[in-house]
Structure formats: C-alpha cells, structure tokens
Amino acid sequence: MMEKEYEGLTNPGMILAFVSSVFGFLSFADAFFELPIDSVFAMGLIRLFLGFIFFLAAMVNLLKGRAAGNLNLIFSVCFGLFSGSSILVKTFQNSMVVLEQPPIYALLQIVCALYLAAILPVMKKLPMYQWICFACVVIGLLCGASCEFTGWMILKRISGICFLIFGCLNIYTGLSWTIEELPQGPLMEQVFFKNKPVQ
Amino acid sequence: MTKSARIQIASPDGAISFLFGVFGLLLWYMSTHPYTTGLLLSVGMTWIVLSTGALAASLLNVFRGKPKGNINLLATLLLGFFPGLNTLVLFSATIAGIPYEPRIFGVIYILGSIFCFGVMVKRLTKPFYRTLSTLMVGLGLLFLGLGDLLSAPVLMRLGGWSMFLFALLTFYYGLSVMYLLYGGSLPQGPSWKEMVKKS
Predict the structure, then answer these.
(1) Is B40 on the interface with A (CB under 8 A)?
(2) Which of A110, A117, A49, A35 minimizes the C-alpha distance to A80?
(3) What angle (nearest 5°) sits at the alpha carbon of residue A83, between those of residues B23 and A14?
(4) In B, residues 45-84, which contact A (CB 8 Å cutoff)?
C-alpha cells in the first residue's frame, strides 16, 4: 500500500486487531459449542457494540487516507453490526416464536466472502500471515454460510477453525502494533512472486 | 491544515459499492420472493444497519469534496433507509394486524429515478458498465415506484431484476476501486461515447 497517510490521527491498528480477534473467537465458540440462549444474546450485544467501535476505527483509517479503511468498514458491518443484529433477531425469534429464520444472512455472508476473495489476489504487499488471516475469513464465511443451506455440520466446524486461526493471527497483529520488534515474516509477493523485484 | 486533511481522506468507494450492491440484492430478493414476518424483521434490521455504514461512507465522500458524495447520499436514502424503514414498519404492522400499503414510497422512488437518469447522462464519458449500472438503478427505481403505485407485481419483478443487474455491476466497480487502491487494475472497457464513435 503506497498511500500517503495523514499523521494527525493515531493509527487505530491495535484496537482493530483486538476487536477482530474477539470476533474470531466468538465465531469459533459459536461453531464448536452449544451456547445457552443468554450467552447467544450476550454475544449479539457484544458484536453490536464492538462493531460500532470497529466502525469508528474504520472511519479513522479512511480519514488517515488508508485504503484498508474500506476493508475495515466492510468487516465492521458484516462481523459486528450486521452479525450482532442478526444474532439478536435470532434470539428474539426463538423466544417470541415469530417464524423460522430465513437464509438471507447466509446469502449476504456469501456475497461478503466472494467480494473479499476477489480482493485477495491484489493484497500481495501484505505480510504472509496477514494475508492468511484474510483468507481464513473468506473460507470461514463461505463454510459458515454454506452450512446454513446444506445443514452439514462439518462446514460449520471448518468455519470455526478458520475463525480461530483468524483470531490468533489478529492477536499477533495487535501485538505487532505495540511491540515493533516482533518479526513480520515475508510479504506475499516475496513468497509467490520471487522473480519480480520487491518495491 | 484543513485542506491537507481533506486531501488525505481515502476513497471509501470500495466499501460503499459493496454496500450499495447488497442493497440492490436485498431489493431484488424482496421484490421477487414471497416474504414471511421472520424475513421482514431480518431484512429490515439488516437494511438499517447497512444503511448507517453507507451513510458514513457517503458523508466521507462529501468531506472529500467529491460531487458524487451527493449521489451516494441520495442512493443511501433511496436504496437503504427508505426500504429498510418500510420493511421494519411493515413487520410491525403485520404483527399488530394493521393494514399497511404506503404507496407514497412509489412517488419517492419515481422522483429518485429521474435524478438517476440525470446522473446517467453525466456518466456517459465513464466506462460503459458504470453508465449501464446507473441506468439499471434508475430503471429499477422507476419500475419499483410504478409497481408500488399501480400495485403491479410484474413491474415490481422487473424492478427487482434491474436491481440485481445493478448489484453485479456495482460489485465490479467496487472491486475495481479496491484493486486500484492496492496497486492493481481490472479491465474497465470503453465508454458509451467511445463505442458510438467506433460504430
């Protein structure tokens, strides 16, 4: 990413990594454990509030002139605001017995995953572990949404594992913002485009 | 200092195009599928949540001094907040057993479509797919508005499918912007005027 950054605003990278890791671990817990209804409700609230913080951080990134703000904004809506509200609606539907939950959320998750997947090839200037982080989100979203349509629990488990990796890698990303000495590893283009000089 | 801060703001078009694409898909889904109360609640919540993201991104374009900020705000209202609120109120009315068929939304959609056609004329010099995307959203709003006013399901379906095409073209535009921000590029094709000149 070659963009010029506005220095008057603090980089929100650490808080973004923290919130992302929470999203990752919440998705992992949802995929692997039968959570009671009050925990699911709390998860919806947490996602909603963290989504709001993520949303503000995305705005700061855009104001700083960072292209990553676009991805942050999509993440904040899909993982936080949208996912949180969907979980809350599901909880209310279970208690109010409105009608069955339609697969519209799964459909939107697939759209989000495909959109992010299409961006992946151009993100070759990222460190490899951050690229894997994004790839895990794409696979996690695709598998989670496919489980809604097919009912295959194995897909939900794969989604949970992907989100666990996503959460762990985000902890490392967050720590990298505070401990600058932490090694970042090779860039994607250094690994897969060895013949081309790295700028 | 204010000027330099404005210049530094990153383009939110990658995120905003994703959100508008999702709005298009939601309008297509709602106008071509039968709905239940569960669907109304879920889609209404989703719509409002996504609209807040689109509103913030549109305002960023306004702060950047881009004329398209106005168009983004118009689209946020017409494709996001109005249908979202309408869906949530329809859900409440269905639960309460109150008849709710507000044809006034049809008038707003038709007015919006006139503005969209105006924007389309301005976009004749842009790549053809962007002109087509604006034409599709204009036609979609026109058909949805007429379908609403005349209670004609066929027109509603036509509007829905126009919105579906708009969604696909908008996703492509969003990806093009993201590729550009990360140093890549996607083929854009000729503009409508160039195509006319060639023929």
Answers:
(1) no
(2) A49
(3) 110
(4) 45-46, 49-50, 52-53, 56-57, 60
What is the mean predicted confidence (pLDDT) over A44-70? 86
Q: Mark which residues 156-195 of A lie under 8 Å from B by CB.
A: none
CA angle (B4 as vertex; B1, B8 as ends), nearest 5: 140
The count of other CB atoms within 10 Å of the CB of residue B29 is 19
Cα separation, A166 vs A44, whole angstroms: 19
Give me the pLDDT at residue B139, please: 95
Q: Is B128 buried (19+), middle (13-18) or exposed (0-12) by CB count in 10 A?
A: middle
Q: How many helices (H) and strands (E) does chain A have?
A: 8, 0
Yes or no, beta carbons of A77 and B49 under 8 Å apart: yes
Is B47:B30 a contact under the CB 8 Å cutoff?
Answer: no
- pLDDT beyond 80 at A102: no
What CATH topology corresponds to A13-192?
A: 1.25.40
Query: Burial code of B62-86, b = ≥16 C-beta within 10 A, e = fewer?
Result: eebebebbebbbebbbbbbbbbbeb
Whole-number Cα distances in Å, A3 to A17, A78, B52: 21, 25, 26
Tokens, residue A3: 């963009």
Cα nearest neighbour of A109 on chain B: B22
pTM of the entire structure? Answer: 0.83
- Residue A124 CA to chain centroid, in angstroms? 18
Residue-wise burial string across A154-176, b where 16 or more C-beta atoms lie within 10 A, e elsewhere: ebbebbbbbbbbbbbbbebbbeb
Q: For residues B186 and A118, is the Cβ–Cβ distance under 8 A?
A: no
Q: Distance between CA A122 and CA B33 in Å, rounded?
A: 36
ipTM over 0.90: no
| Nearest-neighbour CA in chain A from B145: distance (Å) | 24
Q: How far is B101 from chain A (nearest CA, A)?
A: 21
Q: For chain A, what is the mean pLDDT?
A: 83
